[in-house]
Design a protein that fits this description.
Elements (H helix, E strand, L loop, with lengths): L16 H10 L2 H24 L6 E2 L4 H4 L7 H6 L1 H4 L2 H4 L4 H24 L2 E2 L13 H7 L9 H19 L4 H20 L5 H21 L7
Protein name: Phosphatase PAP2 family protein
Pfam family, one: PAP2
Organism: Pelomonas dachongensis
């Protein structure tokens, strides 16, 4: 029986895998930097609009017994913020303008699905069980990423979507398995951080993971040529 291709199975790295990664990184780099930055700016325009103008009253997401297993850990804020670098890895390793456009459209579809939920089913997390304002950086976080627009967690959704695409690209360049495992650890750490800093509850994270997986699977099925040489 074949192993699922989404898991970091052992592969034999080719001698030129590092050269392949370098070439992918430098190809269209200025365009990638501008495009990713513009995409994030447009996303936040939509994000804050839905946050401030929901169609219906806000529903407070419940905590579960799983939330009690994740203690508040302020140092997780660094992991949480690493998403904004992480989401640039997959498009940063694409080779052609057409690939960047199509990948961007899939990422936009993912964010659009999240904003659809936020507008028609606005949600928020419960008040945190600790005074987060006592910790450095959290006041800025509350101003930039408020506790609304909770479910599904787009932080987790975009991380999972990215992780699946990064894994695909690592397989295409035949990078060592350690790189693929690092990718798995990174996405799991980001998902954990959303709960550890009380920006989301576990239900938000699970819904975000489901959304990210669904859109990544659909994009891989309909756009299997992205990332190939």
């Amino acid at each position: 029986m074949n192993r699922p291709t989404s898991l970091p199975v052992a592969i034999s790295p080719t001698p030129d895998w590092w050269a392949d990664l370098r070439e992918r990184f430098w190809r269209l780099l200025p365009l990638k930097a501008i495009g990713i930055s513009a995409f994030m700016w447009l996303f936040f325009v939509g994000y804050f609009h839905t946050l401030r103008h929901p169609a219906y009253p806000v529903f407070e997401m419940p905590r579960t017994s799983l939330d009690a297993l994740v203690p508040f850990q302020p140092e997780a804020l660094l992991v949480y913020g690493s998403l904004w670098f992480y989401v640039g890895i997959a498009p940063g390793l694409l080779l052609r303008l057409r690939e960047l456009v199509v990948y961007g459209l899939w990422a936009a579809a993912l964010c659009g699905c999240g904003l659809f939920f936020f507008y028609f089913w606005p949600t928020a997390v419960p008040a945190p069980d600790v005074d987060v304002s006592a910790y450095p950086g959290f006041a800025v976080l509350q101003g930039v990423d408020a506790a609304g627009n909770a479910c599904p967690s787009l932080h987790v959704a975009t991380a999972v979507f990215t992780a699946i695409w990064v894994d695909r690209l690592m397989r295409l360049v035949r990078a060592p398995g350690a790189w693929r495992w690092a990718n798995v650890i990174w996405v799991l750490a980001i998902a954990w951080s959303t709960v550890a800093i009380r920006q989301h509850v576990v239900l938000d994270a699970l819904a975000g993971a489901a959304l990210g997986t669904a859109l990544a699977a659909l994009s891989l099925w309909l756009s299997p040529w992205i990332g190939r040489r």
